[in-house]
Structures are given as C-alpha cells and as structure tokens.
C-alpha cells in the first residue's frame, strides 16, 4: 500500500507463524492502513482470526476491510460521540461485515470470530483508538516517550480472549489531542515478546520511533527483520503489525537520537557537527510541511545549498539509509 503525501506515514505487515506453516495453514491475521484524501485522517485496523475457528482468516479480512474506511471516514463523528456510542458503532460495523461474509460462504457468524485493534490520527492532533481482544496498542509522543495504551488482561488463561462476535464484549476506547507521535498495533504473537509486565521492550520503542522516520520500503524490511528475530527466539504464532507515524515529529526525534543509534540507522557519523545534525533534522520538517513531497529545486532553496548537486550530496546518507527517497526530480518522505 503506497503512502500518500500527507501528514502521516503508515504501514502494515503480516506473516504466518511457524506453527501455521508447519500445519500447512495460511496467516489468519490481517492488518491494513489508509488515509482519507479529503481530511488527511489516517488509520489502521488489525484483526487476528480466532485459531479455533474454521474461517478465521476470512473473518479477519472482512472486519478489517470494512472497519478501516468507516474509522477514517467518520473520524469526526466518532471523536465527538459518547464513548459507548462510538464503541457500539465500530462493533456494529465489524459485526455487519461478519454477517455479510457468513452469508456469502454459508457459515456461522461464530466461525468468523476475530479480535480488532484500531487507531486513527487527524492532522490537527486528535487521535482515537479502539481495542477488542488480545494484542497490543502502544504509542510514542515527544514529551513522555513510549507507553502501552491498551493490552488485553488474560485473567483466565493466555489463550483465552474475546472477539467482536461476542455479545457485550469487553473493549478499550481512548481519545485525545496533541499527544501522539506514533501508534504501533500488533497481534498477540509479537505482543508477548514486545511488551512484558506493562513495559515495552527496546525493540518495540524503536519500531514506534522508526514509524515517524522510515520510508515504507525501509519499514517493511525492519518489520520483516524483527519478525525473523522473534521467530528465532520462539515466537510461533502469526505476526502482524500496523504503524502510524506523524512526519512532523521526525525532525526533533532525529536530533534527539543517541549518536551511535543515529549512525546505525541513518549512516550519519557519530562525530558529525551539531549544525549538520540540525540541518538534516530540518529536512524532515521541510518535507513534512509540504506533505512529504518537494521538488529538488525547492529543497535546494530551502537548504540554501545553492545547487541541486550539493543538495544531493548533503542528503546522500538519508537517501542511502532509505529514510527519504528521490524520484523524477522530487524528494519524498
């Protein structure tokens, strides 16, 4: 899915778990992201089909594909509604999708059971999230760092959860304004290894911050790499991720990174002068202010490098690291 030229980056990734591939099963998770071209509201929906159900994958796909356009298209209304009304509307959209799919393939509604995690960001700083079942919703903001927003409490057993198809299901709903720089949603496979005892791991925090910085291609590589690592460490369930990142937070985040981490991620020498770091940080701000796309000539004027060739030289590390891209005379972020 292409990243639109908007205030936000967004990306999703899914992979079948080792237990599923060994059993000849496909991935039963489905994660999607999207942006409303009129309002700029950007959202993510991640669903994990119940492994015990015959049509787990079909349920996850039906629910995510139906809920995302409603989430971003009706964001203003959801934001203003009383919590119980917003939850009721989101759940009804999910259940209507399940009923339609059950009719199409002639199965019971319960055989399409799935969890549902949602998050959305608006250009004016408003956000909301909604969560049914297991999985993880985490966030990063420039002031207080990374934190868990929603995580299912397994009071009975680790493999016991709730689903959108269950009447009067438990849910978690939250909203606010001006506090979120990035959202991370994961299914329960990665959740158990990225968050323990109410705390996010270093890898989870890095993913959240990367969500504001990396191109889609670079982010997908990182998600693939971290899934490899988690599987090598014993994760056997399906893995799915969805990320939303605010481009306007990238400049300050880049400047505040530890020099060794900035060198690893961006190929910027650890001993680079402060003025170089500050100028590179301004590249993110310039691109964010122009919707993530700016012509090379305009970038040259903004950076005062006096020639396009000097601009390319100045930005070569960010280009090589896959943080920004250059196509047809334009820079993209």
Total strands: the figure is 15
Topology order in helix (H) and strand (E) letters: EHEEHHHEEEEEEHEEHHEHHHEHHHEE
Pick out the low-confidence regions.
none
The strands making up the biggest β-sheet line up spatially as 1-12-9-6-7
- Major sheet characteristics: 5 strands, antiparallel
Whole-number mean pLDDT: 92
The SS-based structural class is alpha+beta
Quick one: overall form? globular
- Share of helical residues: 40-55%
Write structural notes for this entry.
The protein has 333 residues and is of the alpha+beta class. The chain contains 13 helices and 15 strands. Strand 10 and strand 11 form a beta hairpin. Helix 2 (56-73) packs across helix 4 (83-105) and helix 8 runs antiparallel to helix 10 (274-289).
Question: Which key phrases capture this entry?
Answer:
alpha+beta; 333 residues; 5-stranded antiparallel sheet; globular; single chain
Question: What topology emerges from the helices and strands here?
Answer:
Elements: E1 8-15, H1 18-22, E2 29-35, E3 42-48, H2 56-73, H3 75-80, H4 83-105, E4 116-121, E5 126-132, E6 136-141, E7 145-151, E8 172-177, E9 182-186, H5 188-194, E10 195-196, E11 199-200, H6 202-210, H7 216-232, E12 239-246, H8 250-256, H9 259-266, H10 274-289, E13 293-295, H11 296-303, H12 308-314, H13 316-320, E14 325-327, E15 330-332
């Amino acid at each position: 899915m292409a990243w639109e030229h908007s205030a936000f980056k967004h990306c999703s990734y899914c992979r079948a778990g080792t237990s599923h591939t060994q059993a000849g099963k496909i991935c039963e998770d489905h994660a999607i992201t999207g942006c409303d071209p009129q309002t700029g509201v950007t959202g993510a929906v991640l669903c994990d089909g119940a492994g015990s159900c015959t049509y787990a994958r079909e349920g996850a796909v039906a629910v995510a594909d139906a809920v995302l356009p409603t989430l971003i298209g009706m964001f203003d209304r959801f934001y203003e509604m009383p919590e119980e009304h917003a939850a009721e509307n989101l759940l009804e959209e999910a259940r209507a999708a399940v009923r339609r799919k059950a009719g199409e393939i002639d199965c019971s509604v319960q055989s399409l059971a799935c969890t549902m995690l949602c998050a959305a960001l608006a250009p004016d700083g408003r956000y909301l999230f909604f969560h049914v079942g297991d999985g993880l919703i985490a966030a990063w903001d420039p002031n207080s760092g990374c934190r868990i927003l929603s995580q299912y409490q397994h009071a009975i057993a680790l493999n016991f959860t709730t689903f959108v198809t269950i009447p009067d299901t438990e849910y978690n709903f939250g909203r606010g304004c001006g506090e979120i720089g990035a959202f991370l949603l994961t299914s329960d496979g990665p959740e158990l290894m990225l968050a323990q005892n109410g705390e996010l791991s270093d890898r989870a925090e890095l993913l959240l911050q990367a969500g504001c910085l990396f191109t889609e291609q670079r982010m997908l590589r990182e998600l693939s790499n971290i899934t490899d690592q988690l599987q090598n460490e014993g994760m056997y369930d399906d893995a799915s991720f969805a990320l939303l990142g605010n481009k306007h937070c990238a400049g300050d985040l880049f400047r505040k990174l530890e020099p060794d981490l900035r060198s690893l991620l961006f190929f910027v020498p650890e001993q680079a002068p402060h003025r170089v770091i500050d100028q590179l940080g301004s590249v993110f701000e310039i691109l964010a202010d122009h919707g993530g796309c700016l012509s090379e000539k305009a970038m040259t004027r903004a950076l005062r490098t006096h020639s396009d060739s000097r601009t390319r030289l100045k930005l070569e590390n960010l280009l090589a690291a896959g943080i920004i891209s250059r196509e047809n005379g334009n820079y993209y972020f």
